[in-house]
Write a structure and sequence with these properties.
The protein is an alpha+beta fold and 618 residues long. It contains 17 helices and 23 strands. An 8-stranded antiparallel sheet has the order 16-17-18-20-19-22-23-21. α4 packs across α8 and α14 packs across α16. The longest helix has 20 residues.
């Protein structure tokens, strides 16, 4: 039976500043949906509400018709521009009725959703991030530092954001057209509207967020023109970003205010497709922003706008280095899971999660009190358990070693993947391997990098490498070793990937080329090709304070990149490069290569049978 075809990518309409002209907007949406649809959703950026002051007791005409049921919103519509003279009054009831955290929007009326604050949500498979409101002095319609901090935290999590919605365009730096290494350094200025080149009205905070989040599409408005920029290359990321700026609804200049896209969700794309670089791609149009641009004089949103934002406490305290391990993780408490897993700096407490499900205020659970006082609409009592309210909460967080994937004593270790155990090192086949004989050489002790291991285990590592070399050579292959060390590294693993001897000479060239494309260089540690001497040089020079990436080529040469203090390095760089060398771009992400436990056990048995004659632990 033929495999079912993959689902069609979602079809999304984008619109600029509505300025309250909802009848005109939805008439156009209905027409487009009937002629070229159906479309799954409409995303509105810029100012959604009218800039005019309405009557005191009733909403402006267009909005009232939808709010009171005299007109219908044709397709699910999401808006971020929650500002304008009438916006606070029109949104106050929706804000008062909202319960819990609603990243996918607060329903205003059928098919109309307000994206408040900032968050990340899934829309028909697409990962959509947004920053609602504009920069200002605080209050309704202005985003807060909490909102910005939350997005910065999202930028540090794995996965690619498909769409990022903001109210303003950001200040592009338009460079001259110079061709170098197949990349266009600048955009075609002949097609750029003059409004885009003007610096007025831009927001450096948004510029910083865009460079950190690196979305595949950045959608914005407020400049009154339509502008679809050439794709640009992100720093330390292999995918490109496309910017789309939209004009105001019903503008007199007849500028385009509605635009259709149909992006395939990044989560379903192959690595090759995600990393494909269009021929007109340019370098990033932003001046590299200084980190942590403050939201000038912007207080937190007032209480009526912060009930759904209190989860930012863990983000802020982590960034400011204030957490001592006693604070709760919002993500675990609210959802039951946390993408940071055992790397999370905050407490994963099942009891607190149960209280949160009963609508108990997270700040109350976290601090024992709530600063919002009577304006908070969450419960400030543990009901029948109030008598033990002040008792130290039970934590399920285990010591780091016991929750480590690579510690042999940990209940989390997948011992069926182990192929050999020595005194200082053991070997295991990789989870989601690039190739069937993809091996991890792992210290038995809990060390963050093999470079800092004592001399005796280092000698055993050499024996394991020698054995793997002989095993791979028997199959007409050579081993490529690589290790990435970051400040967050917990338990080291040196990866060994066999490549055909016919491709061994190309490994150095492809690593240098990949590094150049990402904007850094790999230096040669040991020009003489003595791998043991190269590791000794690394061990003598490494200060244990910096991140690094190194790769050992089949001829023994070590290539090294020392990471800067704020440098974001692609965690899968070594694997992605070798996937390209082996023409396996679809296997660059280990998550695409998962096997069943039965398949893994058979793979281990096959490897052990061939490796037994070389195994130094036998």
């Amino acid at each position: 039976m033929a495999a079912a075809p993959p689902p069609a990518p979602p079809r999304i309409l984008l619109a600029g500043d509505a300025h309250g002209r909802l009848h005109q907007l939805f008439k156009r949406v209905k027409s487009v949906n009937q002629s070229t649809g159906p479309f799954n959703a409409l995303l509105c950026v810029g100012q959604f509400f009218s800039p005019e002051v309405g009557e005191e007791d009733s909403p402006p005409g267009d909005f009232a018709d939808y709010l009171e049921g005299r007109a219908a919103v044709p397709i699910p519509t999401y808006f971020t521009g929650d500002y304008g003279p009438t916006a606070p009054r029109l949104l106050s009831k929706a804000a008062a009725d909202a319960r819990g955290f609603a990243p996918g929007g607060i329903q205003i009326c059928p098919n109309l959703f307000w994206l408040r604050g900032s968050a990340l949500f899934n829309l028909h498979g697409l990962s959509v991030a947004y920053l609602s409101g504009k920069r200002g002095l605080g209050g309704p319609g202005c985003y807060s530092q909490d909102d910005v901090d939350a997005l910065r935290a999202l930028a540090e999590e794995p996965g690619i954001v498909d769409l990022f919605l903001t109210y303003p365009l950001v200040h592009f730096i338009i460079l001259l057209n110079i061709y170098e290494s197949g990349v266009v350094n600048g955009a075609d200025t002949s097609k750029v509207p003059p409004q885009v080149l003007e610096p007025q009205g831009y927001d450096p905070v948004v510029a910083e967020l865009v460079t950190e989040i690196k979305p595949r599409y950045h959608i914005a408005g407020t400049k009154g023109v339509f502008y679809s920029r050439e794709p640009y290359v992100n720093d330390s990321s292999l995918h490109v970003t496309r910017f789309i700026g939209l004009a105001n609804v019903g503008n007199k200049e007849k500028q385009k205010f509605i635009h259709a896209i149909s992006p395939t969700p990044a989560s379903t794309m192959s690595s090759a497709d995600i990393h494909a670089r269009p021929p007109n791609a340019t370098l990033s149009p932003y001046v590299a922003p200084a980190k942590s641009v403050p939201v000038e004089d912007t207080p937190k949103r007032p209480a009526e706008n912060t009930d759904l934002q209190y989860w930012r406490y863990d983000v802020k305290r982590q960034r400011q280095g204030q957490n001592d391990g006693s604070l709760l993780c919002f993500k675990f408490t609210s959802s039951g899971s946390c993408p940071r897993g055992s790397n999370c700096n905050f407490k994963h407490d099942e009891e607190a999660r149960e209280h949160c499900q009963r609508n108990v205020c997270f700040e109350f659970l976290n601090k024992g009190k709530c600063g919002k006082g009577p304006e908070c609409r969450f419960a400030h009592s543990l009901t029948e358990e109030a008598a033990v309210r002040d008792a130290k909460p039970r934590s399920d967080q285990r010591p780091v070693e016991s929750s480590c994937w690579f510690c042999l004593s940990s209940p989390d270790v997948e011992s069926h993947l182990v192929i050999s155990i020595g005194d200082g090192y053991y070997c295991a086949l990789a989870k989601g391997p690039l190739v069937p004989e993809h091996v991890l050489v792992i210290p038995v002790e809990h060390f963050p990098t093999t470079i800092t291991m004592p001399a005796e285990p280092e000698a055993e590592l050499r024996r394991y490498k020698n054995a793997l070399g002989k095993y791979f050579e028997k199959q007409g292959k050579a081993a490529v070793y690589f290790e990435w060390v970051s400040q967050q590294s917990r338990h080291a693993n040196l990866q060994a990937v066999p490549v055909p001897l016919s491709k061994a000479a190309s490994v150095e060239k492809i690593f240098h080329l990949a590094a150049k494309r990402l904007g850094f260089e790999l230096s040669v540690v040991n020009p003489d090709g003595d791998a043991n001497q190269g590791r000794e040089l690394l061990r003598s020079q490494y200060d244990s304070k910096s991140g690094l990436f190194y790769v050992e080529l089949p001829d023994g040469t070590l290539l090294l990149h020392m990471l800067g203090s704020r440098e974001k390095f692609p965690a899968q760089f070594g694997r992605e490069v070798l996937a390209g060398l082996l023409s396996m771009a679809d296997r660059a992400d280990w998550r695409n290569c998962k096997l069943s436990k039965e398949e893994e056990i058979k793979m281990v048995d096959d490897f052990k049978q061939g490796f037994r004659e070389f195994d130094p632990a036998e």
